[in-house]
Write a structure and sequence with these properties.
- This protein has one domain: Metallo-dependent phosphatases (Purple Acid Phosphatase, chain A, domain 2).
- It is α/β, with parallel strands linked by helices.
- The protein has helices at about 15, 35-50, 60-80, 100-110, 115-120, 150-155, 160-180, 220-225, and strands spanning about 1-5, 25-30, 90, 125-130, 130-135, 140-145, 185-190, 230-235, 240-245, 250-255, 260-264.
- The chain contains eight helices and eleven strands.
């Protein structure tokens, strides 16, 4: 059985079309499915302005809708292409919105926005495995959706620190419960890398005070050390693309639409 893992597509269908698909039985995707160019420009632009003592830009409802739809439309195109070749299991990264968050944004900006979670699951041969175990021909695959680990907030010290630390504590506790429930896996699909493993920030667009820091998750690292999945596929820190091991566990940061084919 051949399993193809693909790193954060970010809507880059041109790059994905270059991946060999022959004989693939299952495709796994690590989140950040659609293009986030507009959303990233808006977010990091305001981070920079705040560091310079300037007021943040309040983007219009139309601008926010445009950023959302850029990610949504490019995601659907990528998955319609992938399902030509094999079933696809995916998780959500930090680009995707849950149904709850999408409804909240729709109400806030006054536009009806499509629900990506529902629309992906409605596609033939697509399954969103956020915080779920998928058994594919006897292979146990755990999908851990993106969460903000408390160690990231403590290290990067974002604005509204106390509020974000509270939010991270909630997300981290949930992730720990999910991983305990997963127990032993053959494959873990997660968005961010384990802490200090293929996770160093060096991207030019990232703020200066982020450079050189480890942005991975200590929660994920501890799980890998304890439960020893055979394979771990992640993305998120694109410049960390590469391969290493934690014990016998093979760790792959697949970057932006990078790929790895394994045979089981």
């Amino acid at each position: 059985m051949k399993i193809l893992a693909i790193g954060d597509p970010h809507g880059d269908l041109k790059k994905i079309r270059k991946i060999p698909m022959g004989g693939i039985d299952l495709i796994l995707v690590t989140g950040d499915l659609g293009s986030a160019n507009l959303a990233r420009e808006m977010a990091f632009g305001n981070i920079k302005r705040k560091k310079e003592g300037l007021d943040e830009i309040e983007y219009t409802p139309s601008q926010r809708k445009k950023a959302f739809m850029e990610a949504y439309d490019s995601t659907i195109k990528v998955f319609k292409y992938l399902t030509r070749f094999a079933p696809v299991y995916t998780i959500f990264g930090n680009v995707e919105s849950s149904n709850k968050d999408t409804r909240r944004l729709s109400k806030k900006i006054g536009f009806d926005l499509p629900l990506l979670y529902d629309d992906l699951n409605s596609l033939s041969d697509v399954r969103v495995i956020n915080n779920r175990i998928a058994n594919f021909n006897g292979i146990r695959i755990g999908g851990l959706e993106y969460f903000v680990d408390t160690n990231w907030v403590q290290e990067f010290k974002p604005s509204k620190y106390k509020k974000k630390l509270v939010h991270a504590n909630v997300g981290t506790k949930k992730a720990k419960k999910v991983l305990e429930w997963f127990d032993s896996l053959d494959i873990l699909v997660c968005h961010q890398p384990p802490y200090s493993i293929l996770d160093k920030v060096t991207a030019k667009f990232a703020p200066k005070d982020w450079q050189g820091k480890n942005a991975g998750s200590k929660t994920i690292l501890n799980y890998i050390r304890r439960k020893k999945p055979q394979f771990v596929f992640c993305g998120h820190i694109h410049e960390g693309e590469g391969f290493t091991k934690i014990g016998e566990a093979e760790i792959y940061n697949l970057g932006v639409a990078g790929h790895k084919i394994i045979e089981l």
